[in-house]
Design a protein that fits this description.
By secondary structure, this protein is of the alpha+beta class. The chain has three domains: 138 residues, Gyrase A, domain 2; 82 residues, Aminomethyltransferase beta-barrel domains (Alpha-Beta Plaits, 2-Layer Sandwich), CATH 3.30.70.1400; 80 residues, Elongation Factor Tu (Ef-tu), domain 3 (Beta Barrel), CATH 2.40.30. It is built from eight helices and 21 strands. The strands form five sheets. Strands 12-13-14-11-3-15 form a six-stranded mixed beta sheet, sandwiched between helices. A hairpin with a 2-residue loop joins strand 12 and strand 13. It is globular and about 65 Å long.
């Protein structure tokens, strides 16, 4: 297609669903994992309400997969992450962290176990394929590490279960939260999981044949017609409400798991071996110097999410930064995730945030801001 607002080239990949997203109204794109991702289907607030009241279909093919196979695949995957995988069953998924030798976070993917020694890492925005291939060279483990022809879609929202039932029949109803199933939809090979980057009830459909991208998109939209399914994009409003991380914004290579309150994803007290274990032991012993917190910002409704890090001040002293901020139309508040000096991280501490050279009061609050026990995502359909 031709559009003067889209500066497309061959050095950045298009997803298998690209033509369909344009057909269904995508008006803006950004780049994630060296691929275009639709970021605009109109009003972000309308997209949010579509998500929480009915359902949206999102092209998230940018969540590239790192496929790890071979006789030592399980041992190698455990080497990559500090999360104990000893109870990870076949057809189960886990949210994991990938850490480097200093304990810094390289990525926070969803790990899918398709078979005894067959894994996918469904990535956030960083080059873990290269990290894993490099690590494998000197690991003395027998593994094969590739990027397969796999591209996910996200079907998210309260009506997503009904749409899935229409597509796959009643058998899909017993698919549990953070489990997967290999299925075939009219000749289209898929892996379906009860996961998603939305904090809502939802599914991810991993297409295993890129030539069938537009066909799959149209089948899902057709099945969702009676359930008010809308094309959409991942909602910054909803993911910040849910306290979900965005890599490069809320975490990066200089962030460790303890600063994010993700101690549950780090196993230091057993004999599993992983990259960064010694560093993370030292960090835990010495204690963290900063911490991620939730904030409410006292100013007029923010227009869209922040595009820069906003300084946080206490008596004009810089004590941290706002990493993700947005106005929640449901909560009728400006909410934010921030990284602050540990001395200023307690609930109810008041700070100032500097936005475009203006200062506004803010207060530290509990996070996540909505559905803290994740009852929505884990509900039965």
């Amino acid at each position: 297609m031709k559009n003067k607002n889209f500066g497309f080239g061959t050095q950045i990949r298009k997803s298998p669903f690209f033509d369909s997203t344009v057909k269904w109204g995508a008006t803006g794109f950004s780049v994630y994992n060296h691929m275009y991702i639709p970021r605009d289907f109109g009003d972000p607030e309308k997209n949010f309400w579509n998500l929480v009241k009915s359902a949206i279909l999102c092209d998230v093919a940018v969540e590239r997969q790192v496929e790890i196979t071979g006789p030592d695949a399980y041992k190698f995957v455990q080497l990559l992450t500090p999360r104990d995988l000893s109870k990870l069953g076949i057809s189960q998924c886990k949210y994991v962290l990938i850490t480097n030798n200093e304990g810094g976070i390289l990525n926070d993917p969803v790990l899918l176990r398709l078979a005894e020694n067959h894994f996918w890492l469904s990535l956030a925005d960083s080059d873990v394929l290269l990290w894993a291939q490099g690590l494998a060279v000197n690991s003395n483990l027998n593994v094969k590490i590739t990027e397969p022809d796999v591209s996910p879609l996200q079907l998210q929202g309260p009506n997503s279960g009904q749409i899935m039932t229409k597509l796959f029949g009643d058998s899909i109803k017993d698919l549990k939260y953070y489990w997967l199933r290999e299925v075939n939809l009219d000749g289209i090979p898929l892996v379906v999981s009860r996961t998603g980057w939305s904090s809502e009830l939802g599914y991810e459909l991993y297409l295993r044949d890129g030539s069938k991208g537009n066909e799959l998109w149209e089948k899902i939209m057709s099945a969702g017609k009676d359930f008010d399914l809308q094309p959409g994009h991942t909602s910054s409003i909803r993911r910040i409400e849910g306290g979900m991380l965005s890599y490069h914004a809320d975490a990066d290579i200089k962030t460790n798991p303890f600063e994010l309150g993700l101690d549950r994803l780090v196993s230091l007290d057993n004999d599993i071996n992983f990259i960064g274990k010694d560093a993370l032991k030292k960090i835990k012993k010495e204690g963290i110097k900063r911490k991620q917190v939730g904030l409410e910002i006292d100013c007029s409704a923010l227009v869209g999410p922040n595009t820069t890090f906003w300084p946080l001040l206490s008596n004009n002293k810089n004590v941290g930064k706002v990493t993700s901020a947005v106005y929640s139309p449901r909560l009728k508040k400006n909410i934010a995730l921030a990284m602050v000096d540990i001395k200023y991280s307690k609930i109810d501490i008041e700070l100032e945030v500097e936005i475009n050279d203006k200062k506004f009061k803010c207060i530290i609050v509990e996070k996540p801001f909505f559905d803290p026990k994740k009852k929505i995502t884990s509900t039965s359909i």
